[in-house]
Queue: 2 jobs
Job 1
Amino acid sequence: MPTPELAVIGGGQLARMMQQSAIGLGIRVRLLAEGPDVSAAQVVPDHVVGDYTDLDTLRSVVADAPVVTFDHEHVPPEHLRTLQAEGHACRPGPHALLFAQDKGAMRERLTDMGVPCPRHRLVETPADLEEFGFPAVVKTTRGGYDGKGVWVVRSAAEAEEAFASGRALLAEELVDFRRELSALVARSPSGEVRSYPVVESRQADGVCAEVVAPAPDLDPALAEQARELGERVATELDVTGILAVELFETTDGRLLVNELAMRPHNTGHWSIDGAATSQFENHLRGVLDLPLGSTDARSPWAVMVNVLGGAVEDLEAQRAVVLAAEPDVKVHLYGKSVKADRKVGHVTAYGPDLDDVLTRARRAAALFTEGAPHD
Amino acid sequence: MPTPELAVIGGGQLARMMQQSAIGLGIRVRLLAEGPDVSAAQVVPDHVVGDYTDLDTLRSVVADAPVVTFDHEHVPPEHLRTLQAEGHACRPGPHALLFAQDKGAMRERLTDMGVPCPRHRLVETPADLEEFGFPAVVKTTRGGYDGKGVWVVRSAAEAEEAFASGRALLAEELVDFRRELSALVARSPSGEVRSYPVVESRQADGVCAEVVAPAPDLDPALAEQARELGERVATELDVTGILAVELFETTDGRLLVNELAMRPHNTGHWSIDGAATSQFENHLRGVLDLPLGSTDARSPWAVMVNVLGGAVEDLEAQRAVVLAAEPDVKVHLYGKSVKADRKVGHVTAYGPDLDDVLTRARRAAALFTEGAPHD
């Protein structure tokens, strides 16, 4: 195989969608995949199957790649520091990734920066939690995602499972929020920063269900505040590639940071079909220190709805049904086998009328998930 | 490797760009590539390296693929008939491909259909050519492309090289044309047909240099005529996937068919960034008999300029220069080594102002080709 320009660690759908953009830009990617037929391994010929927690495996993958980026934030930071010492540019670097890996470190750093966060404290014992007060959201500081590692509790007794996990825990106030927003930013090592329009992210059972771009009826001052906040966090934490800042819009009209992600993010999938430059292309341009592309929307509204594993087993066969019902919804399947509630794809609709766009995207996703039109 | 849904014969840039769309739709592609590192082999893990004129090689590639499509029109028709007899759906089929492979057969069939073509006749001897008259365009009926196998002659003596080629020759009148247009149509085996906006194709040295979508100042009646003509040819010849009908707009305001191509075509590359559904996605949807997507333009103007091999050797390194100059031009590199005048990529700009769009696309392409801005 010829020398790759970029190593991507992790073979999920984010790496798969990066590859679509890499093909256009002529970027040769080498992939570290968790298995021989994971989502991105299906579409990246130059891949190694192995364990991203093993340093020698990482070394063999990045061997002749000057730049390394990631499908997820779980690579051990000490390995990334070793790779950097050995001459590879890890983007984002471990000094930035820390704040996406460790929610305790993230809260401390953002609070130091004066970035508004929910009230929070690290809790080691039920007594600490009693002191913090109820109701509380208790989270493992590391390793949680999509609602996993998160408990909403109204007493120390309800936090038994959390304390039994043996992991470091963070308690946060249960924010009274109107909705969730996401500020997505692309940044390059040269310091160029570009923000996508602020979107609304709608969750079901702690998992992103649909995203509306831009966030409907968002106060322009709040949109500007979200944008500035995203750009400031990206710059001060020295993030490279895509940063997603997930935000609460509180019922009293403030923004509070919920989570950070340092990679292309589910709340940015709409950009593939809805923006001048997709988040995947701008992630690649960012990590390779290429000039970034426009983050402008190409349509007044875009709606992305996740396809979760449901009643339909054969998504490829169902594609014909979906496209017959909604020929102009853009379909993105991840090449994954169907398991209950697993993210196996997404659909995006765009156009001038939000109701129409929402209806089309939801109907297409429901046909993939349930096999029947959503009503 | 799991069972592919589609076999693609030929590993050039058309197959490479099909793969970008296949990734989104979740279509597993198996590729027959001419070499281990050709354009599409770089991005399709499930590929076989071999010779598309060898039946056993073709059989091994299509083995478990229900549908077969093509990067080019050069697979021997007798092999395609064998594959069909063995249960594979070749799309387009050999009965249609014949008219893209053999210009003599194409002229005869279109003329029988009443489709306007340049005056023409098959010529076997210089005497035949004298009888046809001068000036004449002499073409090999098979195997010519991008200006190869075409001679403009003003006497039989000037046709010496053509006759010396030993190939069947077609003589055509030298059409007095204002410009070249292209009518691009997607069609499925179920008979669904969708036309893209008619574009203007500008050639240099017999090779497509740039494409403007839609064709500027085109008489709406001619546009409608081109569209009807494209759809009629696609339907009557039973083309599946993309058909490109290259047309002359004569100085006296008529349309004459120049060439047919039955695959995604250079005059449709603008659709990746400029249309609701790219020609590559609609080719896949067509050949797999999925409902077709909208062929509407997403922007008032789109301009595609080919990147031909020139002074710049390292296109990947030059990418940073191009994107710095034109961050919002969409770059498509084919992973090919640079040779003089070889198509190694293309760029597309879009927007509301044609002059601006043309300027940006040309400047980006010139930076790739010449290493300096176009003036």
Job 2
Amino acid sequence: MSQDRVTAAVLIIGDEILSGRTQDTNLNAIARYLAVHGVDLAEARVVGDIEAEIVAAVNHLRGRYDYLITTGGIGPTHDDITADCVAKAFGVALYEHPEIIAMMTARWSGELNAARRRMARVPEGGSLVNNPVQGPPGFQIGNVFVLAGVPVIMRGMLEDVGPRLRTGAVVIARTLRVDGSGEGVIAAPLEAVAKAHPDLSLGSYPFFSAEGYGSNLVIRGRDAAEVEATLPELEAALRAAGVTNLTLLDAA
Amino acid sequence: MSQDRVTAAVLIIGDEILSGRTQDTNLNAIARYLAVHGVDLAEARVVGDIEAEIVAAVNHLRGRYDYLITTGGIGPTHDDITADCVAKAFGVALYEHPEIIAMMTARWSGELNAARRRMARVPEGGSLVNNPVQGPPGFQIGNVFVLAGVPVIMRGMLEDVGPRLRTGAVVIARTLRVDGSGEGVIAAPLEAVAKAHPDLSLGSYPFFSAEGYGSNLVIRGRDAAEVEATLPELEAALRAAGVTNLTLLDAA
């Protein structure tokens, strides 16, 4: 694997996310999937089912990052306009892909109405993304992957995205859990260690619950040895600041 | 309430969302909260803890929509840079807000270290957003509300945002559940009804589970009478297309 940074963006398309009707889980699934492949998810956007918004977001994000993954809007109904928008963003036409037509003809015994044919449309120059779950495939055009919005189908399609990515060095993460101390006392030792390791990212993620409070301190970086060596350094700095209830969690 | 459209955007700030470490739930909570107040959530973005990215997103989104709500990055640690970025976006300085200093002095009996003082910083011209849960308040500057990232705290702060919003006509939503029919047969009647009601938004949200499959058809609009009248129209169109297993769900 190359050591350079490979970046990606996610574009979530759908009124149902913005209206609050649906809790998105695709962003988190894609983020975890990309992390395993050493690809940095650098930005995500959520837009509604509006052509101008989708086209503008696709063109901005595909130009700025190595990859763009979109979810949603590829079904057969009139509000599913992602294929149209991606084709427009690339300045190409849509055509009915013969493999999808053949797949759907086999599945529905020839009952291919206009709505179903919508799902066979792929931009010129695009290739198919396998759908191992249900329904027609997604597609790839250039550095853009167009996946379904239904989470179980999206995750199935994602398995066909990974092998196509130029992957970077995987980011290693180690988490130190602090119980019973607030960020107010954690901040100074954490910052001191962060400043000593400018190539690592050190973050603090506080939690509060009926059982108590504390924070998860996460050390991230591409150099596994440096990440591992920084862990005892952070522990020592915290203990010196009086923060003693520490638990090393499994690597994230 | 006025009948015009009031729009908002959400900016989620935090490496932990993009790394996949944390599943965001704030977007959905804010979307539902805004919907009740008749404010359209038009766009959402997720950016990492990078100053230039946050400043650019804040300036773009506050200029484009009536309101911007940010979540995350207002704690005491070095990676909490939201206040700095929002101040920079507005071209103003940060100052230690005397009310927050007083609150924190009372809470920590005078132990105000540098990290805690970070949380007292508010941009010049900003006002405080009450935090009924734990820790220091958020703030408002212009049309931007800066809230915590921890969900329970974010939701508490949100209660002080609603009363400050110019609210639009509330969007009414009615959901018709279809069991045992796919979108391939639903699409044509749905589109016909959608075309007859250009002021309404009709969407189809398919589901698949071990128990079966189908789709939730959602009719949304600001004219409650038109939404209600469209429901039997959609039912009739579906039945005419052979889609008969229909259940009216509670209003969303």
